[in-house]
Design goal:
Layout: H1 3-25, E1 48-50, E2 54-60, E3 66-74, E4 80-87, E5 92-98, E6 101-102, E7 115-118, E8 123-130, E9 139-149, E10 156-165
């Protein structure tokens, strides 16, 4: 076998080892959280309760940034798990505040393994941030933040804000 063939073969083996190691050890720094599943008939399950699903931010300039907060309560008997937070537009973002701890900012294209849990009887805050300057539009607008829960009756919650951008 020629030295050129040995170098090529060795390089291929090294690449395969490195790629295999990456997939073997990637993500091992954080344990994966499983999301509990319930049926609508379960008496011992989480129950998402929200008083308001739409808030009016009023008039704002395209250069402004405004935030509205929504309260999300777990009226059930098991932890309410929150995941897959995203938004309807690149100019709108969602943040969850559970037990005083703020999540990262979630947007339209965020892919995250975030899972938050609201204990039975407790509340969390959903912050909806609107930044019209990111994607300037004028006039009446509505934007949304989407939250997935493990409550079988409220699997997808939609928090809406509306504003008049001038």
């Amino acid at each position: 076998m020629s030295s050129k063939a040995l170098i090529i073969g060795g390089t291929i083996i090294l690449i395969l080892v490195l790629v295999g190691s990456y997939f073997l050890f990637a993500g091992s720094g954080q344990p994966q959280v499983s999301i509990a599943s319930y049926s609508k008939n379960d008496t011992e399950r989480p129950k998402a309760k929200v008083k308001e699903m739409l808030k009016d931010m009023g008039e704002m300039k395209v250069s402004d940034e405004k935030t509205e907060t929504f309260t999300l309560k777990n009226a059930g008997k098991k932890p309410l798990q929150i995941s897959n937070v995203s938004s309807s537009c690149n100019c709108t973002f969602g943040i969850l505040v559970i037990d005083g701890k703020e999540s990262e900012e979630f947007g339209m294209h965020n892919v995250s393994d975030y899972v938050g849990a609201i204990a039975p009887g407790k509340e969390a805050i959903v912050k909806v941030i609107y930044r019209p300057f990111v994607m300037p539009v004028y006039g009446a607008v509505e934007r949304e933040v989407y939250v997935t829960t493990n409550d079988p009756e409220n699997q997808k919650l939609v928090f809406k804000v509306k504003a008049y951008v001038k």
